[in-house]
Amino acid sequence: MDEYKIAREKMVARLRDHYKISDPRVLEVMATVPRHLFVPEALKFQAYRDNALPISSNQTISQPYIVAKMTELLELTPSSKVLEIGAGSGYQSIILARLARAVYAIERLPVLAEVAKARMSEFAIKNVTIQQGDGSNGWEIYAPYDAILVAAGSPTVPKPLLEQLKTGGRLVIPIGDDPKTQVLFRIVKEENGYRSEDHGNCSFVPLIGEHGWKNS
Fold first, then answer.
1. Is 62 labeled as catalytic in the residue annotation?
2. Considering the chain, what percentage of its residues have pLDDT values greater than 90?
3. Which residues contact 46 (CB under 8 A, 6 or more apart)?
């Protein structure tokens, strides 16, 4: 028996009714992926609350609303190829995997990269490829991508990510000149340039790398 089923249903109802997440595929997947398995044991009882939670290596698992909002903004289809920057404990990766054809995820921290790989095995996820490295450089070998999700805040939009986006593709990324607070942007690659949309304030751990924040 899934003791968290009711809590997960309440979380999805909040996403739909309060936050106006309307993509039925996103809501369905959020209702089925057990978020409590991606947080530390001591925090499982908080897994479906409306906030981010700490995981290992001073990182976080994003607030359920942010996961749903960013995923919805990507406008994924079953044929989409997705690049994910910041795999963390693998929760967002599995959400993407169940909505897209293929997910290529980069995680900077070796410990978390191994955790995310283990989660993919546990859930028998076959369409996610994870590597440890600097996500601000993207993953050029598999480009171009239909969608790119960046789960860390950057001072500017990393140029390699723009270059690795297909025409018509969507990049969802937190941008801000403060490492602790950002604005969530969706950037759409068009024939003659890029269109940028502001989707409100957010707070992510910093994107550390060649095209993000420098590691102090």
1. yes
2. 90
3. 39, 53
- For residue 97 the two structure tokens come to 């995997």
pLDDT digits (tens, 9 = 90+) for 135-159: 999 999 999 999 999 999 999 999 9
Q: Please spell the DSSP secondary structure of 106-147, one letter per residue.
A: EESSHHHHHHHHHHHHHTT--SEEEEES-GGG--GGG--EEE
Phi and psi of 26, rounded to 5°? Answer: -65, -45
Could you tell me the sign of the dihedral formed by the alpha carbons of 103, 104, 105, 110, in that order? positive
When divided into structural domains, the chain yields a total of: 1
**pLDDT reported for residue 1:** 64
Catalytic member of 22, 56, 62, 136: 62
Residue 174 sits in a domain whose CATH number is 3.40.50.150
- 112: in domain: yes
59 pLDDT more than 90? no
List CB contacts of 125: < 8 A, sequence separation 6 or more: 93, 94, 97, 119
Helix (H, G, I), strand (E, B) or coil at 86: coil
Residue 4 lies in a domain: no
